[in-house]
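Sanity check

After download, print the first record. It should look like this:
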Amino acid sequence: MATFEKRLLSSSGDGVPIRVIATTSPGTAVHTAVAGTTGLDAIYLWANNASGSAVTLTVEMGNGGAGYQNVVYQVPIPANNIPVAILVGQVLNNGQLLKAYASVTDVIRLTGFVHRIS
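Expected structure tokens:
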């Protein structure tokens, strides 16, 4: 029978928002998935824009290798917004990486959690 454990994003110390500093790939580290292939991390991620202008957020999921191995989401985040859902249960495992960068440095904050399934 599967077990579920709610966990913080690995780059979020004590659950505080992650500041997206990077403006190009490979981006700011957000989460490293569970090691191995017997478990899964279902990732839930929200973004907030603290600036007065819309900002494009790019989220990359994969191993940081060739482009075909990565899934890339580009999302416009409205100015001064409430948190917007970016990922809603997308899964990673085997130590794959979740990273993010934005069109403007240090105005996007990411919050979220992981349901670790083993």
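If your output differs, re-run the checksum step. Summary of this record's structure: Strands lie at 4-8, 18-20, 28-32, 40-49, 55-62, 71-77, 84-92, 97-102, 108-117.
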